[in-house]
Design brief:
single chain; alpha+beta; Amidase signature (AS) enzymes; 15 helices; 13 strands; globular
Length: about 475
């Protein structure tokens, strides 16, 4: 008979319907499949469809987790799912397939979700836009001529379009927050290693990358982190455990927070007027909610920060490439990796050990400078992006020169990377829209390990300025 109201519910809402017996997991699975078939040709969000395994899973005895029976998608990067390809958006890796679930995937299954497939990602998750030679561009449900963000653009596009209520995402320099901002979603970058990376997470040696979800509601994000966010016994840098469930934090008033806000960019370039206006409006909203709000930049040497980051990141790219060659059993042909990817690898191959260690030392010093701000403030606010979501092709890693891609990314995505370097939690909250109807997310960062404050504040903001009833052009 169908369940046309499917897209109106968040994940916990759908799970409650399952618990009450109003719908079955199989019925929810079919609704999600119908929406993939309806919208994916236009959006290119789902790049691998696992319908039959999903149907089998939905018909089985699912774990009695908080998301029992809820359709779910996994980003095609990093997160292993048994029997599914993991291309990482790369022609060189297009033949890879996982034999078993990763640790995080097992925790997702324990939470009760039904996994329908994989979502689009740029090559190796490098860019803030999801456009690759292998998988093609992923489009924004609010306006398909515009980017859905990256590198979790497929997950954000599918969630924003009502295909699923939440989806796996990961963030190395902004890859949860940027697509959440582009697509009008809530997206939390967790503290370093709050969620498990698994035993084969050597590629995350820098500590920048984390996994979590993008979602339409704050409570879905909180409930999923309650289900997955505890360290593995062998996790080398596990953060302090939470004091209580994050779902309880949502019902806790945040108190009178000390909040700094800024539109300061690393290149000293003014951001787009609409993003600036959205930032100022958000600061005003925070004051109206009773918080102490002061304009203050990070006050750091951005040139030194990004020079150090380049040394470390490119060396890591070279090391990752060596690991890929070992797995595949041969070197990549020139046309099997994109120009931006090759540029990072080759720069890394020229780095000396001394350069990399000097970069790590400098990064540590710069991170201390960022963290010192949180001795005075509880939360730091910026826009997520320096412009509204640009059109597809403006940041094209396949056809533009790598240096031009870098320049354009620096202007469009100037705010997110520092909190990957420090390992702090930071969230994108959909509090504004452009004159053309495109979402403009606001970024809030908190102290290391302090997701609790962010969830309390997010719950307050969601009540003060609700967004879940807003609908994109491509929907449901």
């Amino acid at each position: 008979m169908g369940f046309p109201e499917y897209s109106d519910y968040d994940g916990l809402g759908l799970a409650e319907l399952v618990r009450r017996g109003d719908v079955t997991p199989s019925e929810l699975c079919e609704e999600a499949i119908a929406r993939i078939e309806k919208h994916n040709e236009r959006l290119n969000a789902v790049v691998y469809k696992a319908y039959e395994p999903a149907r089998g899973q939905a018909a089985s005895e699912l774990p009695n987790g908080p998301f029992r029976g809820v359709p779910f998608l996994i980003k095609d990067l990093g997160c292993e799912v048994a029997g599914m390809p993991r291309t990482s958006g790369s022609r060189f890796l297009a033949g890879e397939r996982d034999e078993e679930d990763g640790v995080l995937t097992r925790r997702y299954r324990d939470a009760g979700v039904v996994i329908l497939g994989k979502t689009n990602t740029p090559e190796l998750g490098i860019t803030g836009t999801t456009e690759s030679a292998l998988l093609g561009p992923c489009r924004n449900p609010w306006n398909p001529d515009h980017i859905s963000g990256g590198s979790s653009g497929g997950s954000a596009s599918a969630t924003a379009a009502g295909i699923v209520p939440l989806a796996h995402a990961s963030d190395g320099l902004g890859s949860i927050r940027i697509p959440a901002a582009c697509c009008g979603l809530f997206g939390l970058k967790t503290t370093r290693e709050r969620n498990p990376g698994g035993p084969r997470d050597g590629g995350r040696v820098t500590g920048y990358g984390v996994d979590h979800v993008v979602s339409r509601s704050v409570r879905d994000s909180a409930a999923m982190l309650d289900a997955t966010g505890y360290p593995e016994p062998a996790s080398p840098y596990a953060p302090a455990p939470k004091e209580r469930p994050y779902m309880e934090e949502l019902a806790t008033p945040p108190g009178r927070l000390r909040i700094a806000f800024s539109s300061e960019t690393p290149r000293g370039v003014a951001i787009h007027p609409e993003n600036q206006a959205a930032l100022e409006d958000t600061a005003k909203l925070l004051e109206e909610l009773g918080h102490d709000v002061v304009e203050r930049g990070l006050g750091i040497d951005y040139r030194a920060l990004y020079r150090a980051q380049a040394a470390v990141a490119t060396a890591n790219s070279a090391a990752n490439y060596s690991a890929m060659v070992e797995r595949i059993g041969r070197e990549a042909r020139e046309d099997e990796l994109e120009p931006l990817t090759w540029a990072g690898i080759r720069r890394g191959q020229r780095r000396s050990g001394e350069e990399v260690m000097a970069g790590l030392r400098s990064l540590r010093e710069r991170c201390r400078e960022v963290l010192s701000l949180f001795e005075e403030f509880d939360v730091y606010l910026t826009p997520v992006m320096g412009t509204p979501p640009p059109e597809i092709g403006f940041i094209d890693p396949v056809n533009l020169e790598p240096r031009e891609v870098g320049h354009r990314q620096a202007d469009v995505f100037p705010f997110t990377p520092p909190f990957n370097f420090t390992g702090q939690p930071a969230m994108s909250v959909p509090l504004a829209w452009s004159q053309d109807g495109l979402p403009l997310g606001m970024q809030f960062a908190a102290r290391y390990g302090d997701e609790a404050t962010l969830f309390r504040l997010a719950g307050q903001l969601e009540q003060a300025r609700p967004w879940i009833e807003r609908r994109p052009a491509v929907w449901g």
